[in-house]
Amino acid sequence: MIRICSSLAEQGYDVVLVGRKLSHSDPLEQHPFKQKRLACFFTKGPLFYAEYNLRLFFWLLFQKADCICAIDLDTILPCLLVSKLKGSKRVYDAHELFCEMKEVVTRPSRYKLWKKIERFAVPKFKHGYTVCQPIAEEFKKMYGVDYAVVRNVPVSENSKSQIPNSKEQGTRDSDKEQETLNYKLQTFFLYQGAVNEGRSFETLIPAMKNVEMPLHIYGVGNFMEQTKALINKNGLEQTVFLKGKLLPKELKQITASAFAGITIFENNGLSNYLSLANRFFDYIQAGIPQVCVNYPAYKEINQQFDIALLIPDTTEHSIAAGLNLLLHDTVLYKRLQTNCLKAREILNWQEEEKILITFYKQLLG
User: What's the whole-model pTM score?
Assistant: First the structure.
């Protein structure tokens, strides 16, 4: 969202990004767009969604807006209602097939509610974009909407690049910066992103018993306690490390120092199977190969750029075999690494934002 809002603000649009405020929220950083956080009494469950949607509705109602953009299904109702009342244009930014996520599709009552909302609201959003072509095609099939594709690729901060050499990094003054430097001198596999249901931690964690390199997990989510239990159950306290959540600029440094990344999802919902995760591109931009599950969007990009080792499924055996192949096949690793450095000159936000800007110029002028 920072990338999208920054690109639009730099084109002269007056942008306000709205989110929620939690007790542990980091302070807002300065950006070329405005930011607003809504504080809620409830923090999870149905009461949270009801409260947040109500607060968002009344906040939007008293704002001047030529266009209101709903980010995923959990904000779509207030955006739809206010845009109708105010006569504003409306846009749907779908990061995923919300109803097909594991935490939704595996709970019948929850799925039924969100599916009703989706069937009611999405057809009324004629303008929108999503993160990959397979999801765009699914929206077209379900609701007849023709959405653009704007991939969640990172901003390029590299010139024509050289392979990162973490050992050449200078010393840092603060304890936090020194801690980051120490991580960069280590060799580890990296998982970055939400620690949520459906991300294959049930097989990834035990797979690490057969891999001679530690795994660092950066992120938080609704599967944290289960992940800790899996680490303890498999006796991997000295192999799998939960590093918590970092600011994006800090995480970029960590990512560039990793041996390789991991992008895997369970095939238990259409959202996962058709996904195109941010981390997939973050690893490419950092110049490191990755082990990735062989789902359609990843396969299509890998056929073009050859930047990842694709595994057929997310079983414990397949994950361990993939990590070990990348670990021990130097020729394969170097080829993928070199291809990452080439691909990141194309798969970056400076190129992708052109699609976004064209979309809004056609919609708003």
Answer: 0.84
